[in-house]
Each structure stands twice: as structure tokens, then as C-alpha cells.
What does this fold into?
Amino acid sequence: MNNTPVYLIFFAALFTNNILLSNFLGMCHWLACTRSMLSASGLGLAMTVVTGLTTVLNYLIYYLVLIPLHLEQLTFLMFIAVIAAFVQLAEMIVERYNPKLYYALGIFLPLMVVNCTIMGAALFMLVRHYNFLQTVGWGFGAGGGWMLSAVLMAALRKKAGYCNPPHAFQGAGLVMIIAGFMAMAFMGFAGMVAIE
Amino acid sequence: MIYAYATSVFVGFMVISTALLLLAERYLANYGVCKIDINAGHRTVEIPGGESLLASLIEQQIYIPSACGGHGTCGYCKVNVVSGGGPILPTETTFLTRTEQRANVRLACQVKVKRDMQIKIPEEMLNVKLFSARVTSTRNVTHDIKEISLALGEPSEINHRPGQYVQIRVPTPDGPVFRAYSISSPTYERNRAELNVRLVPGGAGSTYLHNLKENDPVSFTGPYGEFVLNENPSIEIVCVGGGCGMAPMKNIIYSLYKKWPNRTCWLFFGCRSTKDIFYLDEFNNFAAEHPNLKVIYALSDPLKPEEPWKGEQGFIHLAVDKHLKAGVKRQAFLCGPPPMIDAVTQVLGEKGIAPGDIFYDKF
It folds into this structure.
């Protein structure tokens, strides 16, 4: 059993254990959507909702269905199915209520099905033996952490657009360097809380 | 036992999530009935929202030209969306010039109908119909070009201008696609349409058409095209075809001499070698009846010793340059590969033909 308080898990997921900057999960979307603030914040919001809800749903499915029936070997399959269904739903909602964002995200919205952050959050939830409330905190914290780093990155990339880096560093090279610096900066939070 | 559990749990979950998604779609992707206003009140159609504009218009028997079957890869289905189209999509920008983007030109296959819309399409497109037809004959005119004759079924008459084209519906494993072919039969033969089809290795449309036999059903939409013949008989007509770009020229020449038997018309046709020549005897016979028709064929490949040829040699724009005198009022129709069109357009410009009097069909 894991005794970490829920609020600590939430903040740890945002800062010290930011799933993107400490585990490097969900990088492909992150690099693509941080080109503009609109898509970074929009996809970040979608990621927060989808990660939070699917992690909770996966918790319920795992402990209420799979464990009692001794079907742990189906874990991955079920998790993926849940995520796929949720992303489909999120896509429909975004298309209906924010077509501009829908078109700005393009293929990256449905591609959330294969975003590692979402699957990773669900699997960390299992290996760290969270209870229900901790799972809620962790799921939304992980999604929010992804959104936080995406928004920060989008802002930095906007600034980088006004810089004049050496030719070899322009474009993707500079983005990767910024990502590394951000990860190091977030390591500065490491002493605050630690979650297992 | 565990297998039964596992299977039923997984299948059960899939069924439930599918049901939920379908339910969500009913509410989220349901846009109700949308009104599309065409050409500011000329025609209004009401359609269920959610489909692409192209598919919705086809449902209403308004046939916008499209070659790729709505996949956003041909860029033919341009329409002017005045309102209700939403923002321009990244899938469209490659096909639209900046001027077109500013003028709200969109690809009908990418615009989804989600609310009432106002669109503008050329008046002629409202007259485009879907024809069902049967193959009456096929004939090889060269080693790779086939002349295919179609008898119209329903509707039984086609009203086209010389030089216009139809879009043949080509069934493929991924759904129908459409391929454009010019009508080579003259406009006064309203019950039939004749096509010249060059076999392109691996090409979906030409392979399908080359494999057709007598009595096979074919459906197509049409007529499309911007060729407009000048009705003033004192203006000379110049037709320049290359490769297999003969179909519109044949149509133009036969239709022209039916109406004005003494009008002056030049036919230039460029191909590679003697084995690519077609319709030459037919046109020479026709020119014997109509002395003002000048027929000039040119071969671009060097002649082989066994090839009997006394006509022009070299690219066709050189023959055009050699035969046409400057300063005569003319109208020109061009059909062929892009480099040929560019070269001939330049020569015709030097001969004093205004760009607005040169119609072309690049393929």
C-alpha cells in the first residue's frame, strides 16, 4: 500500500515527477504541438482530460473486473481499448465545439491513442499501488504536468523565434536543447517531494 | 475457462464502448438539416449535415468535377464558399493559390457541411448530369491508344460544346474514382460519346477503359470544360494536339465544319514516331472535302530508315511557327503535355494571339 497523500501525488506529478520531463513519455506530440500556443494549450487540455479520466477508468477496470476474474494478462489490451475509445470521444467533442482547434491539431488529435503519456500514467498507477483517490490525483496531475510543460515549451519556442541561433542549432536542434534544459530545470524541484 | 472469461470480458467491453461511442456520435456529430444556397438563391438544397460538401452536392445531383474520389489529392473540386465553410484546412492549402484563398475558394471534398452555407459554382456545373452508357465499339487506333464509342442510355442526349470533357466513373477496390476524358465525337451526335484513351501502365482509369468490351456499362458525369468556340466565322481556328490530345480537336473540327463549311482551321498534331500517328487518313479525306482545313502532323523522334514519312519533323511548336503567319485573327485550342502547351503558347503569343483566345488542356 502506498501512503503518500493525494495532494502530494498531484503536485509531484506536476513538478518533480513530470511525466514528460522526467520520464520522457509523450515526446512526439509535445514536439509537434508546441509550435503554437493554441495547439499546445488545446492539446494539453485534451491530454489532461483524457489522461485523468482514462487512468481512473483503468483503475476501476483493473481492480473491479480484471483482478476478481484473474485476468491480469488482459491489462494492456483493456487499457489500450479504453484509451482508444476515450480519444475518439475527445475528438468528437473538440470537432463539435472548437473546430478551429480541431483543424489546428489535425492528425495529432486522433494520434493521442498512441501517446505514451496516457498509457504510461495508467501503468505507473499500477506499479505504485495507488488507491482510488491517489489515482485521481495522479491521473490529472500527470496530464496537467504534460500540459504545463507543453505550454512552457510553446512559450519558449515563440521566444526562440526571435533569436538568432547559430545555423547548426536552428529548428529542431534548438528545440531538443531547450527540452533538455527544461528537464534539468525541473530536476531542481526534486528535493521537494518524492513519490514512489 | 479462463479463455472464455477473457474473451467475454474483452468483447463485452468493446461492445459497451462501441455503443457509447455511437450514442455520443448521435448527439455530437449530428448537425441536423443544413441549407445550402447555391449562387445567391439560384437553387437551395437541404441536406443532412456531417458529410463533405462534395458528397452532399453529388447526392443532390450537382456534379462538381473530382478525379480522386474525395480524398483531397487532385484539387479539382474547387468551389467558392461564401459563408459557413469554417477556416481553411491544411489539407487544402497546397491546392489553393493565395488569390483563391482570399476569395474563399475551397476544396469541396474537404469542407464539411455543419451549418447553413452559401456557395457559388459556375452556372454550367448545375447542368452537369450523370449519364449511364454502354460501349458500342472499341478500336485500337495506335499501339497504345484506343477509340471507345459509348451509346448513351439514361439520359439519352448530351448537350456539350466542342472541346468539353466528361468524367468517367472508374470502379477501384477503394471505391470509385473519376478520370477526365475529352469527348471526340462531334457535338451534333447527341446520342453518343467517343473517347480516345491512351493506356498508361498502372493507371486506374486507362486500364479500366482499355479492358472494356462491347455492351459493358459505363457511367460518367459531364460535360465539363471551359473551351468556347468563337462564333464569328472570319476568325481562324488553330488546334494543336500532342501525344493523345486529339479527342477535343476531332470534336472541334467536325462540329466546326458542320456549321461553317468554309471556315479556316489549322490542325497541328505532334507525336513521336510513325507508329503513334492516328486519324491522319481520316483528316486528309475530310480536308479534301473542306479545302480550308489544313492538317499538319509532326514527328519529334529522328526518323528510322524504314519509316516512310514526308511530313514535318521536330517538335510541334516549330511546325506551328513555320506555318502560321502573324497578324491573322485567330482562336487556339491546345491539348497535350505541359511542356508542349508552354512552348506552343509562347509561339502563338508571338503570332499575335491574345492569351484570352488560347484555351488549353494540360495533362
About this structure: Chain B has nine helices and 17 strands. Chain B has a mean pLDDT of 87. The CA atoms of residues 69 and 175 of chain B lie 8 Å apart. The radius of gyration of chain B is 25 Å.
